[in-house]
Amino acid sequence: MKANRPKRDVHPDLARERLKCNFNIEEVTNIIDGGKDKTLERKKIEDIALNNGACLDEIPDECLSIKERYENAIRKSCIYSNIVRNEMLEITGMENFESPVLRRTADAFFKDISPFMLHLGMFVPTLIGQSTPEQMAEWLPKALDMKIIGAYAQTELGHGTFIRGLETTATYDPDKEEFVLHSPTITSYKWWAGGLGKTANHCVVMAQLYTQGECHGTHLFIVQIRDLDTHMPLPGIKVGEIGPRMGFSSADNGFLGFNSFRIPRQNMLMKHAKVEKDGCYVKSAKHGKLTYGTMVFIRVTLVSEMSFNLSKAATIAIRYSAVRRQTELRPNEPEPQILDYPTQQHKLFICIATAHAFQLTSKWLWDTFQAVMADVRKGNVDALPELHALSSCLKAVSTSDALSHIEQCRFACGGHGYMLSSNLPFIYSFVAATRTYEGDYTVLLLQTARFLVKAWEQAESGNNVTPTVAYLNRTANTKRVVWDNTHEGIIQSFQAIAAGKIGQCVRSIRDRIKSGMDYEDAWLMTTVQLVAAAEAHCRAVLVNTYWNEMIRLTKSSSANVKTVMHQLAVLYLMYWALEKTGDLLKYSSVSKQDLDDLQRRYEELLAALRPNAVSLVDAFDLRDEILHSSLGSYDGCVYERLMEEAQKSPLNAEPVNPSFHKYIKPLMQGKL
Ligand SMILES: CCCCC/C=C\C/C=C\C/C=C\C/C=C\C/C=C\CC/C=C/C(=O)SCCNC(=O)CCNC(=O)[C@H](O)C(C)(C)COP(=O)(O)OP(=O)(O)OC[C@H]1O[C@@H](n2cnc3c(N)ncnc32)[C@H](O)[C@@H]1OP(=O)(O)O
Ligand SMILES: Cc1cc2nc3c(=O)[nH]c(=O)nc-3n(C[C@H](O)[C@H](O)[C@H](O)COP(=O)(O)OP(=O)(O)OC[C@H]3O[C@@H](n4cnc5c(N)ncnc54)[C@H](O)[C@@H]3O)c2cc1C
């Protein structure tokens, strides 16, 4: 049911903030969206979804029981997927089913997450990336038309990170031309898959393939787990929900076990390898890790997902900070807006800049991903290691940075930021999961580190390396870069830090080997440094890409838009340079005086951005329905909304709670 939202006048403080804006907001929105036409398309889609949909709940989700919350999420998912299927895909084109616009609009329906998210987010992409044309023709139309609903079941109770250690088996039986899926141990039970517990009737399963007595490693299979009519689990399938967790509370993350469950041979996803009718195993892939393709795809999309989540948190915290007043600066003067405190600006302006950095980098990463995949389709897999290294570190660093900045947004809202009605706790717990899923932070940075160590060795011996590590050709044999406080200078310093750290890792590994360790132990002992080196490389990529993309995308912008976009990018460079002063002192010629100057310029930049702060978050163009926040709505009527939300607490449904008569009164009367 759609709740009525009272129309209110804009809070005078916010109205005044908007009058201070000196740039064209729409131009900035267009840059964020990827062009004027993209903004128009997004707005059209948002209008369709939000005018049609049951986006507001009368009872907030957090006041419902687990069961009610799931049922409500399913109800809304069905409404939303109908709108996606019947109206939105007509605009984006069927091939853009994973468009960030659909993802963004979904947030108006789900404060938390839809149980269908993984169907569109991972099941469908796996069908597209891992099927033969015949399999695609069989499964994809049904999946896009919601005739079947899928999940992605890879992780098991015993293993998430180490995919090669998965225990579920798929043993080929040539007599019946079937695979027998089996879960031999409790640790082999699939665990975590979103939408698997109660919603999905199909799933993609990763299992160890056995044929002709030999194990060929992990492969993907499509498995029907429930009857399409009754929705009962099929015989041989044990499936359920894994229980309450920190977030993801409106979805049904599931467990799944197989008891010698049979599927047809054709249900092995055979794009990269197949099993013939007689059981013969034939590998066609030119790269052994192409079956991990869905994970690479999601890691790539998560960078823009982080920009989106950060832009929501920043919008909430900055609008709130413009209407919140606290503490007299001088006796008898009005209390200032908390946004006037430089410490508050330090917490928040980096969030705006980071949302831009991730958004611009994510578009560049998406284009890189598309280009590499086009090459792979032609049989050229040369660029795959670089894409894997890049998507791994960008996923790790963007999710981790987004998480800590979102927490800063919550801190910036004081006590009210702790309220679920602010939406900050939902955003935080959603993003907290992203640091772990699709590859844990440390694990992915260590993947990038493998690539970097090889690249460093190449550069050291004078060979040219691939584009994202090309800085190693300049810096691998340089001791310290000369400090220069321009943007080029700061970017080069980040590259020098990365090169210095990678070089130090290589030397540590070599020294350890010299002292008698084998390579594996030398690597293991160096992993703390390797993680730091991969993070430094990622920061070098981020600052360079953000800067270049900002310059490219503002070429034809008006002067004031150029200025404000430039200011944000400089703020991003300075913020991270100041965060990494220890590294700068180690790997560049920066002096204490240079760092003091940098600090002063950073503080001046905060002050310069202050008048445009509210308009910069307005430029994210997040409708109130998407923000779901008592603190962040466009009109800034924070206190009215907090009070309104409080009235919805189930505890306020009756003036006296029955527990008073049952427990408190007897306690007061000494009768308990
Ligand atoms: C109706 C409502 C719907 C609304 C929705 C609307 C729209 C939705 C649309 C879109 C959704 C958009 C976004 C989605 C947002 C949110 C998603 C929501 C929820 C997600 C839920 C989470 C799902 C999951 O987590 S799935 C499980 C993921 N699991 C992992 O990531 C495991 C991590 N582990 C690994 O990846 C690997 O094990 C490993 C660590 C990489 C190691 O692998 P291993 O095989 O052991 O290899 P190694 O021996 O270490 O390495 C050998 C060699 O291979 C190289 N390598 C490894 N991986 C790759 C690769 N992928 N590609 C290329 N190369 C690779 C490795 O570097 C090494 O190379 P070397 O020898 O040269 O060094
Ligand atoms: C909300 C949520 C949704 C999910 N959805 C799905 C889904 O839909 N489908 C699915 O298949 N999976 C899903 N997952 C599972 C997810 O992909 C895994 O949890 C994730 O890959 C991490 O693996 P793990 O849990 O085994 O952690 P572990 O690998 O056990 O990690 C524990 C700790 O050990 C460290 N560690 C592990 N290996 C190494 C190493 N080699 N070197 C150094 N440190 C190491 C890690 O850094 C971490 O600190 C989901 C998880 C969450 C939280």
TrEMBL record:
GO cellular component: peroxisome
Domain Acyl-coenzyme A oxidase N-terminal: 24-149
A GO molecular-function descriptor: FAD binding
Cofactor(s) this protein cannot do without: FAD
Localization of this protein: Peroxisome
Binding site for FAD: 155, 194
Main location: other
GO annotation terms (biological process): fatty acid beta-oxidation using acyl-CoA oxidase; lipid homeostasis
UniProt key word Ribonucleoprotein: no
Metabolic or biological pathway: Lipid metabolism; peroxisomal fatty acid beta-oxidation
InterPro entries cross-referenced by the UniProt entry: ACOX_C_alpha1, Acyl-CoA_ox_N, Acyl-CoA_Oxase/DH_mid-dom_sf, Acyl-CoA_oxidase, Acyl-CoA_oxidase_C, AcylCo_DH-like_C, AcylCoA_DH/ox_N_sf, AcylCoA_DH/oxidase_NM_dom_sf
Residue ranges of every copy of the Acyl-CoA oxidase C-terminal domain listed in the record: 488-669
Domain of life (superkingdom): Eukaryota
UniProt name for this protein: Acyl-coenzyme A oxidase
Organism: Bicyclus anynana (Squinting bush brown butterfly)
